[in-house]
Write a structure and sequence with these properties.
The protein has 270 residues and is an all-alpha fold. The chain is built from 11 helices and no strands. α3 packs antiparallel against α8 (136-167) and α8 (136-167) runs antiparallel to α9.
C-alpha cells in the first residue's frame, strides 16, 4: 500500500501540473501556448484512471485498513508499534527497563522508555486534536471531492477547446478566461489539501506549512518537462513539425528552469 500511494502521488503530479498549465494559459490570456496547450489538455485525461487508484486507497482506509495511515489505527496498535518497551512493562512482560529495551545500561534503558512514552503521548495529543479532520469517512469524502473538481475542470476546458476547433467561436476563449480564475483557486486548495492527505498524513504528528507548495512545485516541474518530451517525441515521429517551433521549446524550457529554481527555494524552506 505504501508503494501504491507513492506511485499514485508521483503520477498525479503530471496530471495536476498539466491542469495548472491549461488554466494558467487562460488566466494570463497567453497566445504563444495555443499549439502546445492541447498536449497538456490531453495529459489531464489521466485523472480518470488515477481516480480508480484513489478509490482503492480511500476504500481500504474506509474499511479499516490500518497498515497505511497511523491515524486510522486503534491507540493500542499504534502504541505497540511506537512504544514496545512501555507496553512490555505495562503488561508485565518485562521486569525492568533494561529487559524491555534490550539496553544493558539501566540509565540509558530508562531514558529509552521515557522517550517512547513521550513520542506516543505527542502522537495521542495530535490525533485527539486532528480527529475531526483525520478520520476515514472524511478522508474518503475528500478523495472523491478532489477528483470531482479536477476532472470537472479538466473536462470543461477540454470540451470548450475542442468545440472551438469545430466552430471557431471566440466565445469559447472568453468563457475559459472568465472561469480560469476561480478554477485556479480551486486547483490551489485541492492540490495542497490532497498533498496533506495522501503524503503528509502518513506522519500525522509532523507539521509543515510549506508542504502543499512543495508538492505543487514538483507538479509544475514534472508537467513542463513531460510536455517538452511529448512535443519532441511527436516531432520525431513526423507530427507537429510545422506547428511547434523551436521558440515553443525555448519557452517550455524556461518554464522548467524557472520552476526548478522555485522548487529548490521551496525545498530549502521546507
Amino acid at each position: 500500500m505504501h508503494s501504491l500511494v507513492l506511485g499514485f502521488a508521483y503520477v498525479l503530479t503530471f496530471a495536476l501540473g498539466a491542469l495548472f498549465f491549461v488554466v494558467l494559459q487562460h488566466l494570463v490570456k497567453a497566445r504563444w501556448s495555443v499549439v502546445v496547450r492541447r498536449l497538456a489538455e490531453g495529459m489531464t485525461h489521466s485523472f480518470k484512471p488515477l481516480f480508480l487508484v484513489g478509490l482503492i486507497i480511500g476504500v481500504t482506509t474506509l474499511t479499516g485498513y490500518t497498515g497505511l495511515f497511523r491515524w486510522n489505527a486503534p491507540a493500542e496498535q499504534v502504541k505497540a508499534a511506537m512504544a514496545p518497551a512501555v507496553i512490555a512493562l505495562e503488561k508485565g512482560e518485562a521486569k525492568n527497563a533494561s529487559e524491555a529495551t534490550g539496553i544493558n545500561n539501566p540509565e540509558e534503558a530508562t531514558e529509552e522508555v521515557e522517550r517512547q512514552e513521550r513520542i506516543f503521548a505527542t502522537h495521542e495529543h495530535g490525533m485527539h486534536a486532528k480527529h475531526a479532520y483525520l478520520n476515514a469517512p472524511f478522508f474518503f469524502v475528500r478523495i472523491l471531492l478532489y477528483f470531482f473538481i479536477w476532472i470537472g475542470i479538466a473536462r470543461y476546458f477540454w470540451k470548450r477547446s475542442t468545440k472551438q476547433d469545430e466552430d471557431g467561436d471566440v466565445a469559447h476563449t472568453n468563457a475559459m478566461r472568465k472561469w480560469s480564475a476561480p478554477c485556479m483557486i480551486l486547483f490551489a486548495f485541492t492540490t495542497a489539501f490532497a498533498s496533506y492527505d495522501i503524503l503528509m498524513s502518513l506522519e500525522p504528528s509532523w507539521f509543515s506549512t510549506m508542504f502543499g507548495v512543495y508538492y505543487f512545485a514538483g507538479c509544475a516541474i514534472s508537467a513542463f518537462a513531460l510536455l517538452s518530451l511529448f512535443g519532441l517525441l511527436l516531432r520525431a515521429n513526423g507530427r507537429l513539425k510545422h506547428t511547434i517551433s523551436i521558440e515553443h521549446y525555448h519557452d517550455l524550457g524556461k518554464y522548467v528552469f524557472a520552476f526548478i529554481v522555485f522548487w529548490a527555494y521551496i525545498a530549502y524552506s521546507q
